[in-house]
Write a structure and sequence with these properties.
This protein has 569 residues and is an alpha/beta fold. It is built from 21 helices and twelve strands. The longest helix has 21 residues.
Length: 569
C-alpha cells in the first residue's frame, strides 16, 4: 500500500451544489420559471435548495414496478430531510416477462435506450442538480445507469427489490418450463393453472439470479447503489429504508462534489464483472455493462470478461442453474459478505469510490461473514465452477464474438447438427411440435439488434427445451440474447448478426456445428469455399419495421459486441 490517503479521506474541492438549478430559477429573467414551479408546489425557500430529480419507473403493468411509486416517495422524503428539494418524474418500463415470446419483446432492449434518453432529457431540461433513479424490470437498471453516466451529476441508483418466490421456489421460469412439460404430457392442465396462479405472488423483480437481480448486484458492486440495495425484498422495511438513505446520500454526494465519473471507473466495472461471475449472473450483464461503460467513457471490451473470468469462480447456487432465490440470499446477508470474501481473495479493487462517499474497501470493513451452515454461497475450496460461466466464444460462426452461459452442468462441449429457424416463433413451434430432437443445435437467427430488431430474449424456446426434457441433449445458438432465466447449453450475441450477412445467415439444417467452451470456439465444419459460395446467393431479409421506434433503433444500434448502444460517434 502507498502512503496516499483513501479517496474518501481526501479533501474535496469546493462545489456549488446548485450549479445547474440556479441557471433555471435564479434572477429576474427566470421569473417565469419560478412562477411555473410555484404552481407545482415550490415555495420561496425551495428556490435556494439543490433540486434532486427522482426518476421513477412506476407502472402497474408489471410486478417489477408496481410498488415503485411508494419507493419514490420514500426517496423524496430522504432528500428533503437533508436539505434538498425533490422533484419526481416518470419514465417508461416494459415487461419482459409479459412480452416474452411475442413480437412485443422487440421493444424490450429498445426500452433501455428510451429510459436513458428520457431521464437525460428531463434532468437536462429541468436543471436538476442531482438524480436518484429507481428501477425494477430488467432494462430499467442499465437504462438508468446509462443516463446518469451521460449526465455526470451526483446520482444514486435504487433497485426496486426482488419478488418472493412462489410455492416450492416457483417463479416466472417455472411457468415457462411448465409449458414444455405440458407439451410432452408431464404436467396436467390443472397443474399448469396452479403454477400460473401461484408462481408470482406480488411486487418485485423475478426471483432468481436473472437479469434484474444480476444487474442490481452489478450496480451495487460498481458503487452506484447503497450497500445491500440489490438483495432486499421489494415490499420490505429494509427496501423502504434503502430509499430514504438514498435520498440522503445523493445530497451528500452533491455537497461533496462526487459525480458518477469518479465512481464508474474501469476498476469499478471490473468489480462489477467479478461479482456477476461469482453470482452466476445473466449473460445480459455482458451487454449492459458494455453499454454502461460506453456511456461513462470507460474502455471495456468482450475480452475483459474472459480475462477476469479466468480467475473468478462461480460460488452462488442461485436459480436458474442452481436451487436458491435472491430473497433467500438476502436473508443471509445479500452480496456484501460475498464481496468481502472476494476482496480478501484479492479479486476486487478496494480503492473504488462509491455513493456512500467512502471507498468499497471502507464499506466492506465491518461486514460479517455468512452464517455457519448456509449452503447458498460456497467457499473458494468448493466452487460450483472454478472459473467463469460467462464464456466469450469466437470462430467461423462468430468472428466478432458470442457469449455463452456454461455452468458446467450441461458439459463443456457440444457437437451436433444445425436445426435452422429464421425467427423465435418458428423455433418455438418446432420445439413444441417435436421437430427438435436430441443432438440438434437449434439455430435462431435474424433476431439480432438490427435484424430483430431489438435482440429478443429466447426464454420461450429455452424454457420449452427444458420442459420437453431436452436440456442436456440440445444446444441453442442465436444472434438474439437470453433472459437471465435461460439455462442449458446456450450461446447468444453471435456477431456479426445474420441480418448483416454474418455467418449465421449461411447455415443450413444438417450442417455440423461445434461449441467448445474450453477452447472458447463456436464453428461450423464447412470450408471457406463453401461459405463463400453460400454468401453469393444469400439475400438480406426485409426489415421488420420501416417507420417508428423499431426502425429508428435499427438504424442507430451497434453490434452486440459493443453493447448494442445507439449513440456511438
Amino acid at each position: 500500500m502507498s502512503g496516499k490517503k483513501p479517496r474518501s479521506a481526501r479533501k474535496a474541492k469546493a462545489v456549488d451544489p446548485r450549479r445547474h438549478s440556479r441557471i433555471v430559477v435564479d434572477g429576474v429573467q427566470q421569473t417565469p420559471s419560478r412562477a411555473m414551479l410555484r404552481a407545482v408546489g415550490f415555495v420561496d425557500a425551495d428556490f435556494k435548495k439543490p433540486q434532486i430529480g427522482i426518476a421513477s419507473t412506476w407502472s402497474n403493468l408489471t410486478p417489477c414496478n408496481m410498488h415503485i411509486d411508494v419507493l419514490a416517495r420514500e426517496v423524496a422524503a430522504g432528500v428533503e430531510a437533508h436539505g434538498g428539494k425533490a422533484v419526481t418524474f416518470g419514465t417508461i418500463t416494459v415487461s419482459d416477462g409479459i412480452s416474452m415470446g411475442t413480437p412485443g419483446m422487440r421493444y424490450s432492449l429498445v426500452s433501455r435506450e428510451v429510459i436513458a434518453d428520457s431521464i437525460e432529457t428531463v434532468v437536462g431540461a429541468q436543471g436538476f442538480d442531482g438524480v436518484v433513479a429507481i428501477g425494477g424490470c430488467d432494462k430499467n437498471l442499465p437504462g438508468c445507469l446509462i443516463a446518469v453516466a451521460r449526465l455526470d451529476r451526483p446520482a444514486v441508483f435504487v433497485y426496486g427489490g426482488t419478488i418472493k418466490p412462489g410455492p416450492d421456489r416457483s417463479d416466472v421460469v417455472t411457468i415457462f418450463e411448465a409449458i414444455g412439460a405440458y407439451a410432452r404430457g408431464a404436467v396436467s392442465e390443472h397443474q399448469l393453472q396452479y403454477i400460473e396462479r401461484t408462481a408470482i405472488p406480488g411486487p418485485g423483480s423475478c426471483a432468481g439470479m436473472y437479469t434484474a437481480n444480476t444487474m442490481a448486484s452489478a450496480i451495487e458492486a460498481l458503487g452506484m447503489s447503497l450497500p445491500n440495495s440489490s438483495a432486499q425484498d421489494a415490499t420490505s422495511a429494509q427496501k423502504r429504508d434503502d430509499c430514504a438513505r438514498a435520498g440522503a446520500a445523493v445530497v451528500n454526494l452533491l455537497n461533496r462534489g462526487i459525480a458518477p465519473h469518479q465512481i464508474m471507473t474501469r476498476k469499478a466495472f471490473e468489480n462489477a464483472i467479478t461479482v456477476v461471475i461469482a453470482l452466476g449472473g445473466s449473460t445480459n450483464a455482458v451487454l449492459h455493462l458494455l453499454a454502461m461503460a460506453s456511456a461513462a467513457n470507460v474502455r471495456l471490451r468482450l475480452d475483459d470478461f474472459t480475462r477476469i473470468g479466468k480467475h473468478v469462480p462461480v460460488l452462488a447456487d442461485l436459480r436458474p442453474s442452481g436451487q436458491f432465490s435472491m430473497s433467500e440470499l438476502g436473508a443471509i446477508g445479500g452480496i456484501q459478505p460475498l464481496m468481502k470474501t472476494l476482496l480478501n481473495a484479492g479479486l476486487l479493487h478496494a480503492d473504488c469510490m462509491t455513493v456512500t462517499g467512502r471507498t468499497l474497501g471502507e464499506n466492506l470493513a465491518g461486514v460479517a461473514a455468512y452464517p455457519p451452515g448456509q449452503s447458498i454461497v460456497r467457499p473458494f475450496s468448493n466452487p460450483i465452477k472454478k472459473d467463469s460461466h460467462l464464456v466469450v466464444l469466437y470462430g467461423n460462426l462468430a468472428p466478432e464474438g458470442a457469449v455463452a452461459k456454461i455452468s458446467g452442468k450441461e458439459g463443456l462441449r457440444f457437437c451436433g447438427t444445425a436445426r435452422v429457424f429464421n425467427s423465435e416463433e418458428q423455433a418455438l413451434r418446432g420445439i413444441l411440435g417435436g421437430k427438435v430432437r436430441a443432438g440438434d443445435v437449434v439455430v435462431i437467427r435474424y433476431e439480432g439488434p438490427r435484424g430483430g430488431p431489438g435482440m429478443r430474449e429466447m426464454l420461450s424456446p429455452t424454457g420449452a427445451i427444458m420442459g420437453k426434457g431436452l436440456g442436456k441433449q440440445v444446444a441453442l445458438i442465436t444472434d438474439g440474447r437470453f433472459s437471465g432465466g435461460s439455462h442449458g447449453f446456450v450461446v447468444g450475441h453471435i456477431s456479426p448478426e445474420a441480418a448483416l450477412g454474418g455467418p449465421l445467415a449461411l447455415l443450413r439444417t444438417g450442417d455440423p456445428v461445434t461449441i467448445d467452451a474450453e477452447r472458447r470456439e463456436i464453428s461450423v465444419r464447412l470450408s471457406a469455399v463453401e461459405l463463400r459460395a453460400r454468401r453469393k446467393v444469400w439475400k438480406p431479409p426485409r426489415p421488420y419495421a420501416v417507420r417508428g421506434a423499431l426502425a429508428k433503433y435499427a438504424k442507430c444500434v451497434s453490434s452486440a459486441t459493443l453493447g448494442a448502444v445507439t449513440d456511438l460517434e
